[in-house]
């Protein structure tokens, strides 16, 4: 059988490798760490640096296709692999999604609404941006932020100095604060022949910047805006010549869906699809990168609810199994640091 190379060894890699195994594929992980959640379920793990060209080339020679589960894989690492075997989704998606400024510009260029934004490369530039956008606003590092890390909220212009300090003098983007009641995400799979299949959009609830819960189907404004958001996500995927699952986060704003950010990979807000859809995001990602036809993304229940188990939430996991209808997923991580994603549960309603 064929072997799928996965860049990154976290829980998304673990769930991709499990879906790959169901289809008869083996997985070979490449990551800078010695081990991780994906290692338990993969045939091979290579520990290597992102800038180790020889190790990346050796890895590429052992696999038939390469994908990634981590959007901060350096573009140069992907470019090193490309001469040896296909990388799906490609370098372009990574390049655009790694930088919040490029990403928002790209979304706007393809017809999406976004929060007003301005690049901020210095303390003085922050004052200029604030004068233009006005508080309340959010200052975000352009690169490497996740789970609300690398962000500072400005209630008034007086918070500028503290915000610039908090994000550590790094290249940043200032975003005007979007007023919204609900947020949601579009997950869409795109195959090598350009066919696309979106899932029903989940309503996402965050706590302290971290995804806490995703529920399908969504109601209210999200239900009204889902088709428009799916059309945008599909357009972005086509513009990137995308292969695999693309995730795009939106706010349900008063004037339509507002693009927040995208992830060129499977996404936490799509974990409900493992039991809650005919084909999961992980299986369709594997199908897509292997050049296979996509499976149905239809709902498998009337309603589906996914909750993250963060930090100590998973400590007494056997107690969760007292509910016989609950699906439990644990990622095999060690230390339960506060806010760390240790697992998730899914509940189907019929
Ligand atoms: P993720 O873990 O999803 O990658 P992240 O660290 O990249 O998160 P964002 O998605 O940019 O961060 O922001 C986290 C949350 O903060 C959003 O889901 C939303 O609730 C809120 N938020 C972000 N930007 C804005 C904005 N411009 N206006 C209002 N709320 C915002
Ligand atoms: Mg993000
Ligand atoms: Mg986000």
Topology summary:
Layout (H helix, E strand, L loop, with lengths): L2 E5 L3 H12 L3 E6 L12 E4 L5 H9 L3 E4 L6 H7 L9 H7 L2 H10 L3 E2 L2 E4 L2 H11 L3 E5 L9 E4 L5 H7 L5 E5 L5 E9 L5 E3 L4 E5 L2 E7 L3 H20 L4 E10 L2 E8 L9 H4 L4 H9 L13 E8 L6 H4 L6 E4 L10 E9 L1
Parallel strand pairs: 1-2, 1-4, 2-3, 5-15
Antiparallel strand pairs: 6-9, 7-8, 7-9, 10-11, 10-12, 10-14, 12-13, 13-16, 14-15, 16-18, 17-18
Helix pairs in contact: 1-10
Bound molecules: adenosine-5'-triphosphate and magnesium ion (2 copies).
Adenosine-5'-triphosphate binds next to strand 15.
List segments where confidence is low: pLDDT < 50 over at least 5 consecutive residues.
none
Q: Mind telling me the CATH class of the largest domain?
A: Alpha Beta
- In CATH, the homologous superfamily of the largest domain goes by the name ATP-grasp fold, B domain
Estimate the global geometry from the Cα principal axes. Answer: globular
Tell me the major beta sheet. 10 strands, mixed
Structural class: alpha+beta
Distance between the termini: 37 Å
SSE order in H/E notation?
EHEEHEHHHEEHEEHEEEEEHEEHHEHEE
- Spell out which ligands are present: adenosine-5'-triphosphate, magnesium ion
**And the CATH topology of the largest domain?**
D-amino Acid Aminotransferase, Chain A, domain 1
Total helices: the number is 11
Q: How many individual domains? A: 3
Strand content: 25-35%
Number of strands: 18
Q: Mean pLDDT, as a whole number? A: 97
Query: Percentage of helical residues?
Result: 25-40%
Measured on Cα atoms, how large is the radius of gyration? Answer: 20 Å
- The CATH architecture designation of the largest domain is 2-Layer Sandwich
């Amino acid at each position: 059988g064929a072997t799928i190379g996965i860049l990154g060894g976290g829980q998304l890699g673990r769930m991709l490798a499990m879906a790959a195994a169901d289809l008869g594929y083996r997985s070979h992980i490449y990551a800078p760490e010695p081990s991780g959640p994906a290692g338990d379920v993969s045939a091979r793990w290579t520990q290597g640096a992102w800038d180790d060209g020889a190790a990346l080339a050796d890895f590429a020679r052992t696999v038939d296709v390469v994908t990634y589960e981590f959007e901060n894989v350096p573009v140069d690492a992907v470019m090193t692999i490309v001469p040896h075997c296909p990388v799906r989704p490609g370098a372009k998606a990574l390049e655009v999604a790694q930088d919040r400024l490029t990403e928002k510009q790209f979304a706007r260029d393809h017809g999406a609404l976004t929060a007003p934004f301005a690049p901020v490369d210095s303390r003085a530039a922050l004052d200029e941006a604030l004068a233009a956008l006005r508080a309340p606003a959010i200052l975000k590092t352009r690169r490497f932020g996740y789970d609300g890390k690398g962000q500072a909220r400005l209630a008034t212009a007086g918070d500028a100095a503290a915000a610039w300090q908090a994000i550590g003098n790094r290249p940043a983007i200032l975003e005007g604060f979007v007023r919204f009641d609900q947020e949601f995400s579009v997950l869409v799979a795109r195959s090598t022949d350009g066919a696309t299949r979106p899932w029903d959009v989940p309503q996402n609830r965050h706590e302290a910047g971290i995804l806490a819960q995703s529920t399908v189907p969504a109601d209210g404004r999200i239900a009204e805006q889902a088709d428009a958001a799916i059309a945008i996500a599909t357009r972005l995927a086509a513009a990137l010549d995308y292969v695999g699952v693309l995730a795009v986060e939106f706010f349900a704003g008063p004037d339509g869906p507002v693009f927040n950010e995208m992830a060129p990979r499977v996404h936490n807000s799509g974990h409900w699809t493992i039991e809650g859809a005919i084909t999961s995001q992980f299986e369709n990602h594997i199908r897509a990168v292997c050049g296979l036809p996509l499976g149905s993304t239809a709902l498998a229940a009337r309603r589906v609810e996914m909750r993250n188990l963060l930090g100590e939430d998973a400590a007494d996991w056997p107690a969760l199994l007292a509910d016989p209808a609950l699906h439990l997923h644990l990622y095999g991580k060690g230390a339960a640091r506060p806010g760390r994603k240790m697992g998730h549960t899914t509940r189907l309603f019929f």
